[in-house]
């Protein structure tokens, strides 16, 4: 009888700790035309979010990387190494770029993962799809 109770306690502890970790993630707001320069530690995540209020093209660039860091982007959810909509996953200090189309308003999440300790610069740009279609009509 005590074994069953002990196992339930472990499962409960695991579930409550993973819920706590998920609740601790508070992404930093980023806006179109913003550029952020940051330092990141080995195996650390930095998270950002951009609220896209109309159908748009998004361009998200990770550049000026002093050592290896990876870019991950996802709509509506914090990206992970397993779940994302864009992750160029280039080695070393190469520029990583995600170009995405947001057909409807929503929040896009950006994750930077430090494969090594270093510095990076993150840039975000959105362009209204209506403006693009008007420009291409000429």
Summary?
The protein has about 140 residues and is α+β, with helices and mostly antiparallel strands. It has helices at about 1-25, 130-135; strands at about 30, 35-40, 45-50, 55-65, 70-75, 95-100, 105-115, 120-130.
Question: How would you characterize this protein structure?
Answer:
- This protein is α+β, with helices and mostly antiparallel strands.
- It has a single domain (27-136), classed as Jelly Rolls (Sandwich).
- Helices cover 22% and strands 42% of the residues.
- The chain has helices at residues 2-23, 129-136; strands at 28-29, 35-40, 45-52, 56-63, 69-75, 96-102, 106-114, 118-128.
- The protein has a four-stranded mixed beta sheet, with no helix packed on it. It has a four-stranded antiparallel beta sheet with strand order 2-8-4-6.
- Residues 1-23 have low confidence and may be disordered.
Give the neighbour order of strands across the main sheet: 1-3-7-5
Look at the helices and sheets and give the structural class: alpha+beta
Unreliable stretches (pLDDT < 50, length at least 5) are 1-23
Task: Encode the helix/strand succession as letters.
Answer: HEEEEEEEEH
Reported for the largest beta sheet, the result is: 4 strands, mixed
- Helical amount among residues, as a percent range? 10-25%
Distance between the termini: 77 Å
Could you say what the CATH architecture is? Sandwich
Shape descriptor: globular
- CATH fold-type name: Jelly Rolls
Number of helices: 2
CATH C-level category: Mainly Beta
Instruction: Please compute the radius of gyration using only Cα atoms.
Output: 19 Å
Total domains: 1
Number of strands: 8
Q: Give the DSSP E fraction (strand runs of 2 or more residues).
A: 35-45%
């Amino acid at each position: 009888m005590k074994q069953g109770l002990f196992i339930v306690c472990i499962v409960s502890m695991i579930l409550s700790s993973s819920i706590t970790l998920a609740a601790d993630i508070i992404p930093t707001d980023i806006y179109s035309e913003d550029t952020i320069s940051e330092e990141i530690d080995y195996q650390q995540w930095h998270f950002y979010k951009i609220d896209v209020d109309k159908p748009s093209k998004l361009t998200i660039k990770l550049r000026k990387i002093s050592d290896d860091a990876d870019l991950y982007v996802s709509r509506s959810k914090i990206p992970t190494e397993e779940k994302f909509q864009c992750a160029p996953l280039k080695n070393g200090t190469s520029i990583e770029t995600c170009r995405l189309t947001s057909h409807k308003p929503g929040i896009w999440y950006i994750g930077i993962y430090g494969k090594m300790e270093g510095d990076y610069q993150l840039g975000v740009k959105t362009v209204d799809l209506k403006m693009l279609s008007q420009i291409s009509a000429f």
